[in-house]
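Notes to self, ATP-dependent acyl-CoA ligase:
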Amino acid sequence: MLSARCKRYPDKEFLVVEDLHGGIERLTYREFQELVQKLATLLQEYGIQKGDKVLLHLPNGSAFMVSWFAILSVGGVMVPTNILSTEEEMKYLVTHSESKIIISEKEYEEKFSTFRLPLLLSRLGEERRGIWLEQEAGKMRSLPIPLQLASGDEAAILYTSGTTSKPKGVVLTHKNYLHTGKQMAKILHYQQTDRMLIALPMFHGNGQYYMAMPALYTGASIAITENFSATNYIKQAKRLEATIGSLFSAPIRMILKKEFDPADATNSLRAVIYAQGLTDGQYEAFSRRYGVELCQLYGMTETVAVPLINLSKRDEHHASIGKEAGGYQVKLRGENGKEVPAGEAGEITIAGVPGETIMKEYFKNPGATDEAIRENWLYSGDIGRKDPLTGLYYFVDRKKDMMKRAGENIAAGEVETVLNEHDAVFESAVISVPDPMYEEEIHAFVILKDDNTTGSEELIDWCRKRLAKFKVPQAIHITEEFPRTSVGKIQKHQLKNWI
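result:
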């Protein structure tokens, strides 16, 4: 696909990258392909063969993009990892993935000092110790005779966050990437004139699935920022001339928390896709401030493209995750595995073809694979509800975040929605802890808006007036911040240690 786009748009700008210091790098399709070919040749020089794993430990940037495509072009399998991971966490990922080479930066070199693996370091600057990726790749001339690659060949392993167990490696094929590029481009009507903004970490599927691949499929371009900045997100979008953005609800709330700059009201963005719902006030404020259409979707690393997306233009439906899209079929199932009646909550399951429209498998974990994929249905572990009148789906909660008190089921998300509607609340997170009498006790953690002094009792009273008695938190804890993942998701398993 890259080769085809290079033939058609050789001199079109493909990649625009802004680093932490505001420096901007620009690459045309042809320039990008030349870098990919040189690095691919270098990887072959280091013995990378079809099926070999190459671990990436890089921030957002051109080195990540070039490495991704170079690894795949020689039949290798990319293993992207979080630069915030500790040395201990990296030991597991390097070993479990069976990686043959590590591509990283000088800053993270010590994490890999115990491994006897080739370590290619990008962006070394004046320190030339070790193997400097750009310098070594620059010596290469052209890619040797290409391997015979098939679309079903493995292309990447994306490790999902582990909470109570080690991370699971989601195995993706070339066909998976081609599928998401085609479907996301069609669903969201991406044009050649569009420029997708990637500000969230690229080791996640988000930037790869929803931004990079559809841009390549369409012949559009990609803007990348080294990291997400709530203060500068809109300014970077303007500066890099981006037209499509992708965020989660947490980064959107972070943007709204910053003082609004009226100059940001005029920007180049026409749409921002996002996941994990916003309150009415947050949705309305973001749309009004920046004149950008917000489009909520539902997807997972395992689903590849999005099986559900909200393309409704009606604001009153903004809380919905939409309807089936991209050729996917969705069913909500009860504990018995049977489809629940419309209006009732059930586990979101997605029909798909492993290695094409959904992940191929979990790497070296057949038990988890068999549990997740049953008769070509992917069991998401998420609970949803379908409105019988509109046909729109709504996210209820993670299955593991469903709670039970005195025999009654409670969705943490429902309690959080009520708390977030209070004028004093910026964000909330609800968890449960064991209770000897009532099964579980409900605890809420709340971040208040700036300069607000509302107390826990007032918030509990607020909940009592709006929730059934068994859903009201037994305790509310005021805090200044939550433990989060790299994309802003709250790590609820850590909150349990705060009680």
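- The chain has two domains: 2-385, 406-498.
- Residues 2-385 form a domain with the Rossmann fold fold (CATH 3.40.50.12780).
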